[in-house]
Amino acid sequence: MPDYQAILEQIHEGVLSKAPEGCVASYIPGLANVSPDKFGIHLHTAEGGDFAVGDRNESFSIQSITKVLLLAMAVSSQGRKIWKRVGVEASGTPFNSLVQLEYERGIPRNPFINAGALVVCDFLLGLYDDPKADFLKFVRRISGVSTINYDESVARSEREVAYRNVAMLNLMKDFGNIHNNVETIIDFYCAACSVTMSCRELSRTFAMFMRHGRLESGEEILSIGRAKRINALMQTCGFYDESGEFAFRVGLPGKSGVGGGIVAVYPGKYSVAVWSPPLNEKGNSAAGCLALELLTDLTGTSIF
Ligand code: GLU
Known about the structure:
Blueprint: H1 4-17, E1 40-45, E2 50-54, E3 60-61, H2 66-78, H3 99-103, H4 114-127, H5 131-143, H6 152-160, H7 163-174, H8 182-193, E4 196-197, H9 199-205, H10 207-210, H11 224-237, H12 243-249, E5 254-256, E6 261-266, E7 270-275, H13 286-299
Antiparallel strand pairs: 1-2, 1-7, 3-4, 5-6, 6-7
Helix pairs in contact: 1-13, 2-4, 2-11, 4-7, 4-8, 6-8
The structure holds glutamic acid (GLU).
């Protein structure tokens, strides 16, 4: 096994010595005041080992990383039905783009762009009486942390400026791919994006994808086939129109969020979460991508 702790320390030093790149997301007012200097990594191995550096215990807004958990809840409840309403192809467009939706008649390219995640939220609203409460229960169960919660002030501040997401919902409703009230969906989506977790909690939550759909106790949440498909989507669609570059540089399935978090998974080996708020022009954590590239290079552990 590589000396993960020594390698994480080397990465931390390497990232600190570089001039910071990128900007903290400010289009959601509730995210704008996070310090750009925060940096943490937590790596959790299949054998149960934990290795970490920096601000790994500080909670941050997981934002789009939540889309993987929403999809896992939808797929674990109703298997295949969701795939009639959302595709599985990389979009090649920014996370909040509207153009493809018009051409493709209201069917989003994949569940990890905003339009796709909004359809998943609509789907969950059709399955659960109180999906907001049930989603939190689901996240607490797979993370094993009963205190994980929504950040109401971040959710509220996103709801107040959700013009594009509302536009996508209305367009998809016109095409017949949205069934519930737009305001109700936005409320659920913004709450789900506002979940806060630390790198430690995030890497342990995504250990379920590293364990092919099982919790540490052995309990199955997703079948091997479903876990495979979600990992495949993280590989091809987890970084918006930078998914190819992430595969090229890092070589692991993963998902980013505009809160500066990135989580990545090596099935059967480890799950790792990194947090650094400044984002590159594609909306992914600049230092987070670099740290994960160094991790897979220095440990020789990419899936490719
Ligand atoms: N809540 C964010 C939005 O809808 C998520 C985007 C992201 O993290 O990429 O804009």
